[in-house]
Amino acid sequence: MKNNFELDKPHDECGIYAVYSNHNSELARTLYFGLYALQHRGQDSCGIAVTNGLNISYYKNLGLVSEVFSEEAISALPEGDIAIGHVRYASSGLKNSINAQPVVYNGRLGMFAIAMNGKITNAEVLRKRLIEEGMTFQTNIDCEVIANLINKHTDNGKCDVERAMRELEGSFAIALMTSTELYAIRDRYGLRPLVLGRTEDGYYLSSESCGLDATGVELIRDINPGEVAVISAKGVSSSYFAKATRRPCIFEYVYTARADSFIDNKSVYEARYECGRTLARKLMLKADIVAGVPDSANVSARGYAVESGIPYIDVLEKNRYVGRTFIQPNQFMRENSVKIKLNPHLHNIKDKEIILIDDSIVRGTTSKKILETLKKAGAKAVHMVIASPIVKHPCYTGIDIETYDQLIGATRNAEEIGKLIGADSLHFMDVRDLIKCCSSGDYKTFCAGCFDGDYPDDIEKKLKDRREI
């Protein structure tokens, strides 16, 4: 069971790391470090698959990367030329080892392995049709639906990947490994991130550039929306299964991605820092100190402090040994999970008027407990500033906020939310300002559906028409 602090934050489903190499004799170990850097994207399960050109060997299980992949587990995986790895947050599909990725499939294409990040919004429609066509399923995850589609669209050992991808709705970043090739695929809107890197010994894929950094790989570029990039002994070749309409998920910049990552040519750190500066210019609040809710709001808080001239002081210390899978043995522990996760700096708080920056408010339960903690520690007043707009709508494409009843902001304005959580004042960012802060060059369009209800591809309408929501 996840603690209340983590349940009150939106989660991405997973992260991908993959390698095509002719000279790296320790692919599994390389993937270990790449996945370790992506651990923030999924903590429920992880897995690695390796091919030597003939067979695919794999290992996956529940737990963190450091828990699942002991030295013995890594050493048991063979040397090979291609490998893909995955970390998963179980927002869809049961949390068990069967649903861990990569999915290894033996069919018309021979043995292949596939891992994905995202949410296929027509997965159940496709699953039902594929079952009627005689295909079988071992899991209830979207990734196996894609694997069966790939098998269906394979003839004489040649797969029409583009045709398979055109059947999918929703979001997806995919790494697909055959015995001789590595595919990188991104949905037509680029909702989920996927980057390509290179070293002298080969090519690398990662959900975020921080995964490449951890393994000494140079970032080349993002995989483009609608692109199918094929990496083989000949290099990288690309085709497109759809006309791209670039609208990546803006929540990657707000919360999901690590601050040291670059996504679609934009520094996540720079985006969050500019959010803080923009809020300071707009609000012009008076206070003694500025503080952030660790860790993802710290960058915005620093930007706010620099722009406002109000000193940045830590008021909450995060216990980094309490993981996202922290087990709470009783009701008392569940109710006090925020106290276990975040402890107040009493000396920095007493008799201070505080501007407290957080990245988002979803359910509001954590914000309420944090404010109670600060007031009990002697804060004179706490003005809460959120470096994103009010989350008014669900996300159907991979962030774990899928129903309106999960959202404190679905039917309330800032003043009403502020009263419920106990803030002396509560302020949110305007969606246009957020988009401006996250834009880079010609890239100025995003999916901000959780804020403004404007979803790509009429996703919400299609789900309602199918009565899935």
Structure, described:
30% of the residues lie in helices and 25% in strands. The protein is of the alpha+beta class. The protein has two domains: 4-248, 4-Layer Sandwich (Glutamine Phosphoribosylpyrophosphate, subunit 1, domain 1), CATH 3.60.20.10; 267-452, Rossmann fold, CATH 3.40.50.2020. Strands 3-2-4-1-12-11-13 form a seven-stranded antiparallel sheet. It has a six-stranded antiparallel sheet with strand order 5-6-9-10-14-15. Strands 18-21-22-23 form a four-stranded parallel sheet, sandwiched between helices. β2 and β3 form a beta hairpin.
Structure keywords:
469 residues, alpha+beta, Rossmann fold, 19 helices, disordered N terminus
Radius of gyration: 22 Å
Biggest sheet statistics: 7 strands, antiparallel
**Strand line-up of the largest beta sheet:** 3-2-4-1-12-11-13
What count of helical segments does DSSP give?
A: 19
Mean pLDDT: 91
- Percent range of helical residues: 25-40%
Residue windows where pLDDT falls under 50 for at least 5 positions: 1-5, 324-329
The shape is globular
- Estimated share of beta-strand residues: 25-35%
Overall number of strands: 23
> What is the first-to-last residue Cα distance?
25 Å
Give the structural class.
Answer: alpha+beta
What number of domains? 2
